[in-house]
Amino acid sequence: MQTACINTISIIGLGLIGASVLRALKKSPLALKQRILFKGYDPSFDDRDIDHIKELGLDRFETDKKSLYAADLIILAAPVETNISLLDEIKRTVENPTLVSDVSSTKAAIARRAEELGIDFIGMHPIAGKEQQGYHASHDELFTGKTVVLCADEETLSRPDVGNLQELLRSIKCRIVVMAPEEHDKIVATVSHLPQLLSTALINHCEHDIDKSGPGFSTLTRLAGSSWDIWKDIIATNRENIASELDSFSRELEQLADDIRANRTNKVRERFEKANTLYDNLTNNNS
């Protein structure tokens, strides 16, 4: 076990992911052993929200930025462009070196800004979530068995506090994968951002026939319930990768339409059989 060096964690943004991180870590045996103090802030919270989030495990709701940022680990859990702007505030406010992380769905833009500011930073992306937003939808097991991507170089990964962070993530039963920020953004454009936009496009395309749809349509368009307030920053900070994936997928749809129109049954069957195999692999890996 690495030296326990994270004694205080501040979480900025206490919505679905931020509150779920809080709840998961709060019940972690390792966090309990280290007696970690959890502080946090969310600009949308009123007194009732503050009372509720304390019931979920927050030790202190801090409105004073100097006190908020006085922590061994700061986790930014606001939308990504807000997180990027908060880096400047942290740089101006924090007196001692502090490890900063985030749970944004894109990594390259925020990593570049942290490097420009000379902030000790490690990108973190828990591959988990819901269509619902807010701390009321949070859960202490949202990340159980899920992958958490860490974006950092070897020097950062060798730091004792980063080692302690990885131990904390493993203690809440996360699988850790390490990759570069640019690689991360390209991958999530394919397996996360593309499905969101396809779901949005599909339900809009079928708007006049939704009342005649069945459970299959509902399953396929589940992501259409996602909030634009979350996705506007994701799209803005990963637009080139997302646009490339949409272009590529549109060509796939054109080829499928052409095969169906020309009655190339074997080609369509091959797609089904390949998809069946890939889906079996996917469900087995996630079980």
From TrEMBL:
The chain crosses the membrane at residues 6-25. PROSITE patterns: PDH_ADH (PS51176). InterPro entries: 6-PGluconate_DH-like_C_sf (IPR008927), NAD(P)-bd_dom_sf (IPR036291), PDH_C (IPR046825), PDH_N (IPR046826), Preph/Arog_dehydrog (IPR050812), Prephen_DH (IPR003099). Pfam families: PDH_C, PDH_N. Residues 7-287 form the Prephenate/arogenate dehydrogenase domain. SUPFAM superfamilies: 6-phosphogluconate dehydrogenase C-terminal domain-like (SSF48179), NAD(P)-binding Rossmann-fold domains (SSF51735). Keywords: Coiled coil, Membrane, Oxidoreductase, Transmembrane, Transmembrane helix. The keyword Transmembrane applies. One of its GO terms (molecular function) is NAD+ binding. Residues 239-266 form a coiled coil. GO terms for biological process: tyrosine biosynthetic process. This is Prephenate dehydrogenase. It comes from Prosthecochloris marina.
